[in-house]
UniProtKB/TrEMBL annotation:
Its EC number is 2.4.-.-. In the N-terminal section; belongs to the glycosyltransferase 51 family. Keywords: Carboxypeptidase, Cell membrane, Cell shape, Cell wall biogenesis/degradation, Glycosyltransferase, Hydrolase, Membrane, Multifunctional enzyme, Peptidoglycan synthesis, Protease, Transferase, Transmembrane, Transmembrane helix. It catalyses: [GlcNAc-(1->4)-Mur2Ac(oyl-L-Ala-gamma-D-Glu-L-Lys-D-Ala-D-Ala)](n)-di-trans,octa-cis-undecaprenyl diphosphate + beta-D-GlcNAc-(1->4)-Mur2Ac(oyl-L-Ala-gamma-D-Glu-L-Lys-D-Ala-D-Ala)-di-trans,octa-cis-undecaprenyl diphosphate = [GlcNAc-(1->4)-Mur2Ac(oyl-L-Ala-gamma-D-Glu-L-Lys-D-Ala-D-Ala)](n+1)-di-trans,octa-cis-undecaprenyl diphosphate + di-trans,octa-cis-undecaprenyl diphosphate + H(+); Preferential cleavage: (Ac)2-L-Lys-D-Ala-|-D-Ala. Also transpeptidation of peptidyl-alanyl moieties that are N-acyl substituents of D-alanine. Residues 328-603 form the Penicillin-binding protein transpeptidase domain. NCBIfam families: PBP_1a_fam (TIGR02074). Its main location: membrane. GO terms for cellular component: outer membrane-bounded periplasmic space; plasma membrane. This is Transglycosylase domain-containing protein. The chain crosses the membrane at residues 20-41. GO terms for molecular function: penicillin binding; peptidoglycan glycosyltransferase activity; serine-type D-Ala-D-Ala carboxypeptidase activity. InterPro entries: Beta-lactam/transpept-like, Glyco_trans_51, Glycosyltr_51/Transpeptidase, Lysozyme-like_dom_sf, PBP_transglycosylase, PCN-bd_Tpept.
Amino acid sequence: MEIMTNHGFRKTIKYLRAIIIISLIGMVCMLILFLGILGYAKILGAPPLAVPQSTLFFSDDGTLIGESNSGQKRYWVSLKDISPDLVDATVSIEDKNFYHHHGFDMKRIAGAVVADIQAFGKVQGASTITQQYARNLFLEHDKTWSRKLQEAFYTIRLEMNYSKKQILEGYLNTIYYGNGAYGVEAASQFYFGKKAADLTLAEASMLAGVPKGPGYYSPLVSIKNAKHRQTIILRTMVKNGYIKESQAKAAAGKSLSFVAAHPHQQVKVAPYFQDAVKNALKSQLHLDDRTIALGGLKVYTTLDLKQQEAAEKQVQSVIASGSEIQTALVAMDPKTGGVKAMIGGRDYEKSQYNRAIQAKRQPGSTIKPILYYAALSHGFTPSSTMRSESTTFHFDDGSQYTPHNFNNKYAGGEITLAQALALSDNIYAVKTHLFLGEDTLIKTAKKFGISTKMAKVPSLALGTSGVRVIDMAGAYSLFANGGKKVEPTLITRVEDYNGKILYEKELDNKQVLDPAKAYVMTQMLTGIFDPKLDGYSRVTGSTVIKELTRPYAGKSGSTETDSWMIGFSPQLVTAVWSGYDDSKPIDYVAEKSYSKNIWAQFMEEALKDKTVKAFKPPKEGVIGVYVNPENGKLATKDCPVRRFTYFVKGTEPTEYCTEHMDRSESNPLKKNTEHKDPWYKRIFKWAN
């Protein structure tokens, strides 16, 4: 019997030893596994904290003008921009030991297990803020063991690589508050119409209760349930030492009002401009659609809200409501290229086609200033004269071309370049174009930033090849800024959700035009508003002169299907087009004047608070003299009209006008009166 007992005892000891050894091996394996998990988490490093967020668009003064709309409202704000009461309320109710654990609250987990066993079901959660943040960032909200293991691993990675402040900030910016609002900023805006930084204790404690069940605890669903949850949160805040009992009672007793609307639910500000900005993010910054829509970008644009409002107002007031004609407008700062206002059509809801940047329309006579800039480089001056008369041009291949002036009016004699531009004489333009060579205008247009294809034909001088409105605004900016390179710009800076600068506009002040010739052209372009240049017809800007209160330069243009007005002051250049989308002829007289009227009224309103500035000549290279505008010669006291005109220095006229002098008087200014035909008149052998 004793032998049997000893044998049994030894057998028990053997089993205990085996169990202990196996347990130790298991513990070592568990420790190795745990250390392996930690090591692997460390090797992987910090997980990215990027989550889908709304991209925000701002005007030039920092005003929010729009956002990407994916059905979710997400804004990222730093912890310092969140009400401390909301932070404390959230920690108190969701994870009171947040600052003391390392991602898992073991005591809370044990308590939850006991509670679940007692209730024979899951009645108490034990997820910490870090665990919830890991779930919000990386995982679907299913209840599988695979998801839970992944959640635990992400929790370890978050705790190992980020501070408690970073984790809490991320959690508050990703948690769902119902009604499409993700994060405290979107929720605060939706429920209370204010920033998260401005929430009161009463509002914060109410909002902190919503994430537990937005469909149950939202004050918009049940104010009773929401108030009950608020009371529980205020008690926990008192218990955890965040507030005093008196503060809790005061907050619980406050009556709250709710906005229940997301700000900027629809794009109302400059919708064509905002579309153009999104296209620029893709084409110029090479961002994909998802990043633009959900990347949480902050896009700072060039839009001037007052000028945009002025543009929309003038389009609406000038164009008859019953007209089907369309219009486009681009206003730019000529020094920076920043687009200050954009109209892409009369009604964005009916048509999202942006005629300001997508349409290619015939520019008509607005192309002539570019042609005449090239002419200044080939010996022409504002006083260069040619005959304005009905002309047929014959070419070596047997073809011929007969351009016409508006209403078939001609001077029937010599006119100067300055007057030809002011009256928009087509014969002068075609003669100049053919003399320079048909490829000269094409090359010069490219120098001005016009990228659309142009046909090498005689009629190109009259604007028969399509261009974009935004490109023409950019081209005229080179005249306004003295010949410095600018490109139409919509975006000044782009930041990611963390505030890192992804793009920032840099000015390129490269001189691409001769400043003296650019200024001479600018001064010639003021001529369309100067009655001193009236001739066989009135200057083309005569219908709007009375509306203008400051110096402007510009050029109108028209074809059978297109009407243009492009002009500028030293501070602003604006291009306006009007016409039909199907390119049908503009027959009504009123419709032919829409572009000029919109331009004039917009410029006056856009600049009404700006200092009146004259066009400033360059320090050297130009000289101004008084000329007789009829013949371009130096004016005398006897000339009935004298106009101060700028020339490139060295090209100013030296011959005095003698047509109005008393023939009996001796003329002390008789030098250089011998008349010779200008050299370029002998060139046009093909003209009849």
